[in-house]
Specification:
Layout (H helix, E strand, L loop, with lengths): L2 E4 L5 H12 L3 E4 L7 H5 L5 E2 L8 H10 L7 E4 L16 H21 L1 H5 L5 E5 L15 H21 L5 E6 L16 H13 L9 E3 L8
Parallel strand pairs: 1-2, 1-4, 2-3, 4-5, 5-6, 6-7
The protein binds 5-hydroxy-NICOTINAMIDE-ADENINE-DINUCLEOTIDE PHOSPHATE.
The site of 5-hydroxy-NICOTINAMIDE-ADENINE-DINUCLEOTIDE PHOSPHATE has 33 residues, from helix 1 and helix 4.
Length: 227
């Protein structure tokens, strides 16, 4: 059975990815940032191992990478993400918090991807995805604001578009995925869909990734999103 590594699996969309892939018979490496989250994620079942991984901490990434040396991965889901301060105001932009969001959402995803590339090269699936957001779309931005989250997801999109091009000769399919507005800690209780609907759709999109679809941006329903 194939093996998937998921970042930020303690709750929300990452947890549901772990649950659904385990249910489908995959071997699941569901990474979490805090030891407190380990029992919660382990409760999914024996197909799931739950190592610690803070994507913003280079040492944490290096330690897990070394521990997993020789393990082949078929699919990497860069899911870990931060929203950061909501609605930062012009004149009072919290630059430290902005750096933290970029460190996690952009550099964290790149760091994990490049560190685990040997593991992915050893696998048959050769698929890498990143959870982005429509909030990072220039074409879709008609309401302004949200400088921190929007810029982090726009940068993530640019990085993964390049990765799709650069890794295509090795047979990799790379995609950027928008989960919809989902009822999680980040999405809040008023969001439109639940994690089950979002992740069921996202798994279908991941299954259908062909070389021609690589480097493009889809939502959970398989609709292409304008950059
Ligand atoms: O988020 P949330 P979602 N290293 O806040 C982890 C995108 N998205 O499931 O804080 C490792 O419930 C965090 O760990 P911890 C969104 O941008 C969502 O809704 O320790 N992990 C937790 O497991 C994100 O990329 C919506 O418990 C780190 C997880 O990330 C993805 O979907 C809409 C970390 C966050 O759980 C999952 O979002 C959209 C780090 N440094 C895009 N920092 C939506 N929900 O509506 C955080 O457009 N985590």
């Amino acid at each position: 059975m194939p093996t998937v590594l998921i970042t930020g699996a303690s709750r929300g969309i990452g947890f549901e990815f772990a649950r659904q892939y385990a249910e489908a018979g995959w071997t699941v490496i569901a990474t979490v940032r805090s030891p407190d989250s380990i029992p919660v994620v382990e409760s999914i079942g024996h197909a799931v191992t739950v190592p610690l991984l803070d994507v913003a901490d280079p040492a944490s990434v290096a330690i897990l990478c070394e521990r997993m040396r020789g393990t082949a991965l078929d699919l990497l889901i860069n899911n870990a993400g931060l929203y950061g301060p909501r609605s930062p105001k012009i004149g009072d932009v919290p630059y430290m918090a902005w750096r933290e969001v970029l460190e996690t959402n952009v550099m964290g995803a790149m760091r994990v991807t490049e560190s685990f590339l040997p593991h992915l090269q050893a696998g048959a699936g050769k698929t890498i995805v990143a959870m982005t957001s429509k909030m990072g779309s220039m074409a879709d931005n008609s309401s302004g604001g949200q400088y921190i989250y929007r810029s982090s997801k726009a940068a993530l999109n640019a990085v993964f578009r390049s990765l799709a091009i650069d890794l295509a000769p090795q047979g990799f399919r790379v995609s950027i995925l928008h989960p919809g507005w989902v009822r999680t800690e980040m999405g809040g209780p008023r969001a439109l869909i639940d994690v089950h609907e979002s992740v069921t759709g996202l798994r279908r999109v991941i299954d259908g990734l062909t070389p021609e679809r690589s480097g493009r941006w889809y939502d959970y329903a398989g609709r292409e999103i304008p950059w």
